[in-house]
Amino acid sequence: MEHRRTAPLLAADARGWPSLEDPDLLRRGPIWVPLSPHEAAVARLLAGRFGRVVGRERLGAAVWPSHPHASIALTQLTARVRRRVAPLDLEIVTVWRRGYLMRDAALPDGGPVIDVGAGLGQVPATAHSSGSARQ
Questions:
Q1: Measured between alpha carbons, how far is 15 from 95 in angstroms, rounded to an integer?
Q2: What is the pLDDT along the chain (135 residues), one digit of tens a residue?
Q3: CA 67, 116, 89: angle at the middle one, nearest 5?
């Protein structure tokens, strides 16, 4: 039986990581928020790589496989997901020229943030959900 990358994520909920339940419910501990199918596609990728950068192209391809370069639409969709995940003490950070990441908004610095795809190391702690982290 093949184990998908999301399997450890579901087990990690006790540690405070977000998990997707059903196709469109994002849960963290006892709190959950409903998501549209497109919002859930973005949240699934970001939660599956919690604390790590996910490229815009990869997110776009997950939401719109036939039009992965829908840049403005992805920006608007990510803004909606930011608002939806806020009650879960999660934030989505824009990492300039790299993509987005989901992290713990309750931690003073958002917790560990690793940009493994670009090999750039840590994203500055000044990154926040309403702006971007420029490197």
A1: 25
A2: 333 344 333 334 444 788 888 888 999 988 899 999 999 999 999 999 999 999 999 999 999 988 867 788 999 999 999 999 999 999 999 998 899 999 988 876 656 555 444 444 444 433 444 444 443
A3: 80
- Residue-wise over 51-78: b if at least 16 C-beta within 10 A, else e? bbbbebeebbbebbeeebebeeebeebb
Which tokens in the block code for residue 16? 């405070």
Pairing, β 90-95 against β 132-133:
parallel
Residue 11: which residues within 8 A CB-CB, separation 6 or more? none
Q: Residue 134 corresponds to which tokens in the numbers above?
A: 């420029």
The SS3 of residue 15 is helix
| Entry pTM | 0.71
Residue 18 tokens, joined: 């977000």
85 with 40: CB under 8 angstroms? no
Give me the DSSP letters along 48-64. HTTTB-EEHHHHHHHH-
What gap in Å lies between CA 6 and CA 104, rounded to an integer?
Answer: 18
